[in-house]
Structures are given as structure tokens and as C-alpha cells.
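Colleagues,

Please find the record for the two-part complex below.
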Amino acid sequence: MKLYNIALKNLKGNLYRYIMYYFSNVFTVAVFFIFSNFIFHPRFDEGPLAPSGTVHMGAITGITVCLIIIVIFTILFVSYASSIFLKARGKEFGLLSLFGMTSKQIRKYVFVERNIITVLSVATGLITGILFSKLFFMAMEAFMNISLPFSISWKALALTIGLFFILFEAVNILSLFRIRNKEIVEQLKIEKMPKELPSFSKFKSLLGIGLLIIGYSAAWIVDGAFVVFAMIPVVLIVVAGTYFVFTQFSLLLASRLTNNKTIFHNRTNLVAFSQMRFKLKDTAKVLFLASVLGAITFTATETIFSFFTEIPNIIGLKNMPQDISIIQEGENLNDNLSIVKAMDILKDYGFVVEEYQRVKLIRVINEKEEYEDGHVSDILAISNSDYNKLASYMGKEKVQVGEGEVIYNYPFRTVYYDEGIVKNIEFPYEVVTLNINGETGDFTVKGEVHGSVTTLLNRRSDLIILNDADYNRISKKAEEKDLVIFNGIYIDSWKTSYRTSLKIQEMLGERYDEFFFSKAIPYREMRNMYGLALFIGFFIAFLFFIASGSIIYFKLFNEIKQDGLEYNILKKIGITRKEMKGMITKQIAVIFFLPFIVSTIHSLFALKSLSNLLDAKLLTNGLVVMAGYFVVQGIYFIIIRRIYLNKIDHISEIATE
Amino acid sequence: MYVLETKGLSKIYGSKGKGLAVKALDNFNMTVKEGEFLGVMGPSGSGKTTLLNILATIDSPSSGEVHINGKNPHKLDKDRLALFRRKNLGFVFQDFNLLDTLSVKENIILPLVLDGVNSSVIEKKVGELARVLDIENILHKRTYEISGGQQQRTACARALINDPSIILADEPTGNLDSKASNDLMEALERINKERGATIVMVTHDAFAASFCNRIIMIKDGKFFLEIVKSSTRQVFFKEILDSLSLIGGGHNEAI
């Protein structure tokens, strides 16, 4: 029997220990391959393929960033995991050296064992990657509106194999130096040494809670642009708080619980809680890491998801009242046929036109806004009754403009601060002089209303509202070049009108290039963009999720032999299987869901900050994302509980014989 | 009526087709009366531990029956069996089997807490047992802070706290020095005499065995001989040594 055989046998025997590590690695390799296979796809050599360059660049850059994250993360994960494994095997190494294995041989033995895992991980990862590449391409085709024939890139294959081999081997070789030469007796005794009662500091526990309260309140209170400045300090405070909560406060809490006789001396609680106390001590740092990692994952997912749901808000679609607008001016001024055709297309595609608005606007020159170079600015005038018609459909207040007066309509609702003073006056004139083809008139500015009533494009979309009589007078002076006809259409469900909008755009042709707008078009493009980010981000999130779960798993299973022996004692004293299951479930649940709960709370506060920044209510988004993660975490928990119970049964049965 | 009775007990290992079948117990009969302090002795591989495991209901016989208080526990399902052990049996093991995560007192009261017994009852019983076993001063210590002898007396207290029908002891002095062994055996003797506890103890150690009222010797899974204490412990000790030399094999390691 060679060293290789011993290593292989040992791997088989300790399969439960390595299985999650192996799965994490397989997943990482697979994702890495899928991503790089996408980037190296031959079709991208020809330049941007997607209809919009932003989506194309976004996809490539996003995925490249993800590849870098994967590499950095893998280095951290693999080295941490290997240090946990080595620590757990002190007794085994002690036995091996007792049998006369030199420390060089032990290193070789570990090295061989690791190489087997590496080869297996990379090979299965690649196969999984190749299998799922087609699926990934199909998703990307949908997001980017391109066609990507299935192909396996040799470059991607070589990169994945080369990179992960170097990476795994480097970490392996470095970790071999950590196998220290303790006295054999010490190594053999390691597992038998009873642990001392976990100690904690009251001050640090309270400090942890205090830091969390400070961080949370800051995240809750800070508003608007200050969120950006507050972010880093708040994150640092919360991370520090989390550390103390896990390493100190959790022990304080456990100690309080074990001092409360009514709770502690209640059936299996006696054993479950006291074991929990030691488990918390052992896993505190891992739980801390897992909850920070989880908080990052959750927050990132929630952020992207919020951008996804808040697209209309972010790209300003909320300021655009009509779903579709067509503007007639210049050569198109009298082209009413196109409008009829557009309405027909909408009907053909099954959309119901809920409101059709046609408003005539007149371009006048506002002489007050004369620039230094002599350039004057024009502004569109609308009649009082037209404005009221548009406004009342939207549910806005009507206005009343007297003769010789104007009201200024500013399209946005922004209120901003300038040197501490609330500024909401956009039109700082008392009197304006309007000029139409050389004829001028003075009007008193009666006031201004904010929020647009039209969807005008590629121009200043502010309006000046005139009394109907004044408007008619100016109208007579207006020539064709001064006229703008605005056609606004409300339909029953604009979000689904992307294809129809493209049809209308095609029908209108080039001459309407800047005079046609449908909300559905930018909406759909942004949706694809964020959808893509969400999709790619999902892989990374899942990677983090699996990895932090695996680390908890390693920690949990390191102690399983000890636990098995304890359950064996309990079995003799007379504990039913149901009671034992209950205790184990309680303990694993705490270890598994504690970081999850902490991450959730962290990320909900971060989301609150984001809502403050975006001025939107995002709590529902947070809950949707959480529910998703909860399901995955729940499944993970059920699987691990099963493996754990089986292993415990196995160990305690062996101990009985 | 006997507290414990076995009828034609056999245990065969490795009988399922493959490998060599080993008869660890062969048609073994024994009875224990209430208040008895019985020792089971025999050389290595004689079947002592198998017997104890079967009596402890953590192993089942290939054939034959065990009756504890007239009931056959091996007919119960696993969970009922666990509850049966909790209510009727007390255990003392060679390696103490205390839980490191619990304090001495918590280890002792564990069986009662599992049964949901009222805490005032628990306090009363712990106080009483701690006095008998002389561990009052260490009740709040952790298991790693006390000596082996104290650990074993803690285990005795745990075995006694639920007033079991029988206490089963498996080499209780195996990990103790002579002073601690003596203390422990005196404690067991006291428990037996003062509280009328029925004890079945498996041991190698003739000195420990001399505290019993009666000794059963097993050889190759079969009943070999029985000696009953008739006069002093010293005399009984001699008789045990003589019997051990008779049984052979195990005699060297027994002393």
C-alpha cells in the first residue's frame, strides 16, 4: 500500500467532512468557466453585438469584475477551509507520527490528499460548467437580444484549469507549512482536553450592542446625499458591533440563559443549552464572518433588485405623464395620417387607448432670458384650458391665469438645498417679455407649478401657461414654424408595449426620430440591463452563500466526534431519539440561522439607507429578497441536519459496540 | 420475586453468513434479588461486558430473555426503551461518562431534568446524595476541575438520583488509583446497605469485588461458579482470588 492509497482511503472515510468543501469548489470552478467561456465567445471578437452598446459593455465589464471577485474569494475561502481541516486533524497526525511517519511524509500525505480533491473539483467543475454553458448563453441571449451559438472556448478552458490548479496548489503548499510539530502526546490528547467554560466581558458585550445601535440609527436617520458620506463609517461601526455581539454578547446571553433555572432546568434544555454555549464560543468568529459576508450578499442583491423595480423612478419615467407621445412640428406638422396609423397599430396589438390628448403649443421667445452672447431662449406656450385638461387627467390641480398674467410650469419636482436655503423657485422673474415674430408683450408672472404635464423630448420641457384670450391673440401671430402639436396617448399597460412601440417607431420612420417617445423602450432596455446585473450577481451571491454555509458546516462537523460520544452517554442514561433530534435541531438551527438573521437585519438597515438615498420605499424588495434566501438557507439547513444526524447515529452506534 | 432475571441468554456475534460466529454468551441464567450487591467476574473475552450491555438494554440478546421487575425491556421500541432506562436503570462506567459541558451538579440532576421533575424535589435529592457520596463541596465545579475518584462518585450520584431498580456498574474502579477505588467501593457499599440499592457490578478487580455480597464468574460465555460472602471482606477477598486461579487465564491480569 502506497501513500496514495492511504490518502485515498482516508478521503473516503472522511467524505462527510470534505463534501461541502468539494461542492463549493465545484460550483466556483463551474461559474468561473461559464463566465469566461462567455467573455471568450468568438462572436464578441467582431465588436459590440448587442443593440445597445451599454448593455454589451455592461455585460462584459460586469462579468470580468465577477471573475476577479471569484478569484479573490476563492483564495480566502480555500485557505481558511484548509486551516480548519488541518486543525481538526491534530490527533490523526499524532497517530501517524506515532506509527513512525516522518513529518515530511505527513506533509506528502496531506499534499496527495489535497491533490485528489483539487483534480476532482476542477474536473467536475469543468464538466458542470460545460453542461450549463448553453443554458447561460440562452439567458444572455434573452437579456442582450443577440444570438449566441453554443461554443466551448479553448482559452476559457485553459484559463480555468490553469488558474484553479495554480490557486489550489499554492494554497495547499502554503498550508503544509502550518502542520506544526507538537509533542505526539499533546497531539493525541487534543480531543480529550475538556474545554473551559467560555468567558466573556460584559463591557465588550454592551459595546457591541451600543455600536450596533449607533450604526443602525445612523443608517435610519441619515437622509439624501449624506448617505454616501455616512456609508463607510456606518459599515465599520456595524462590523465592529457584529464582532463583539458574536464573540461576547452571544456568550453573555447564553450564560444568562443557563443561569435561569426555569428555562435551563427544563428537560433537554439542560444539555442543549450547555452544549450550545461551547459551540457558540467555538464558532463565534466563523459566525461573525458568515454574517458579514451574508450582509454584503443580501445588501448587494437587494440593491440591484431595487434598481430593477425602481427603474421608472431612476430613469425619470415617473416624470413623464403620457405613455406614448408623438410630436408634430416642421415638416410633420400636418402629417395627421401617421397619428391615425399609430393608433391603429396600438389597437391591432390589443392595447386600449385610455386617453388621447392633442394640444397645440406655440414657441415664443422669452426676452428676459437673454444670454451674454446675444442668444435668446424660446419657450413653449400652452393655453390655460389645455393645461387644465392635461393636468386634471393626471389628477393635478388646475390653475387659473388671468389676462396679462403667466404661470410658469417647471417639469420636475425637485427641491434642493443651496447653502442651507430651500430653493424651489425656478423662474425668478416678476415680469416676462414674450416675443412672437417681433411682436412683444409683457406679462406678470403669477407663480409657478412644478411637475410636467407633457412628455416633450429633446427640448426644454418647461411651459408657460397663458390665459386663453392671450393665447389666442398670440396664436394669430404665429406662423407654421412656431407651432408644435403634442399628441399624448395613455394606454392600459405601457410596460408590455415594447414590441408595439418598436412597430410604431418603424412606421413613423426617420423623420420622427426625435419626435416619438414611448416609455416602454427605455424601460425595457434598463430592465434588461438590471436584469442582467441581477442574473450575473446571483451567481456571485450564491457563491458567497454556499461558501459561508460550508464554513459553518466545517466547524460543525469538526466537533461531531465529541458530540457523538456525548450523545452516546445520553443514550445510556435514557434519552429518546426524538429528544436527541430535537436537541441537535435546536443547536444546528441556532448556528445556521443566527448569522442569517443578523445579515438580514443588517441588510434591511442598509436598504433603509438606500431608500433614503433614492427617496423610495424599498422594504417590500428587501422582504422579497430575504424570502428567497430564506428558502435556500432552509433547504441547506434540512440537508445538513440530515447528514449530521446520520453521522451522529453512526458514531454513537460504533461507540456502543 | 427477583429484580433481575435472565433466562437462557445467548449472544452470537458475526453470525450473519460471513465470518466466524463468536458465542459471547451461551445459555446464561442469573437472578438478582432486591438489595443485592452482585459482582460479575471473569477473564477477558468471557462475555462480562456483553452481559452488562444486554442488561443495560443497549444491546439485545440473540436469544433468551431479560426480566427487570418482571418486564422484558427488549420487547419495547427504541424510544420506550430509552424511557425505560431513564426510569429503571442507573449506570456507572469505567470512564465516568460525564458531560464536560455541564457542571457536577448539572450532570447529577440530568436524568431528573430530562423527566421534567420539579426543581425543589431535585434540590432535595441532590443534597442528600451529595452528602452520602461526599461530593457536597464540588457540586458547582466543572468536570475537568475534579479528580477521577470525585468524577466517579459524581457518576454514582447520577446513577442513583432517579431511584433506579438496579444500578449497573462497568469496571467502576478501572480508571482509579487504589485510594480512590477504596473510597468509591465504600460509597457503593454504603448505598447498598443504607439505601437498599440493588447493584450489579462487572469487574476485573478482586479487591473491588470483595465489597459485593455475591460473585458470579463467567467463562467463555457460560456460568462458571458462584461464591457468596459468608464472613468478613478479607476472607471473601481470599476466596475470590482462589476462584480466579481456578478459572485460569484471567487470573494473572486480575491481580
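The interface with chain B takes residues 194-197, 261-262, 265-268, 270-271, 274-275, 277-278, 566, 569-579, 656 of chain A (CB under 8 Å).

Comments are welcome before we finalize the supplementary table.
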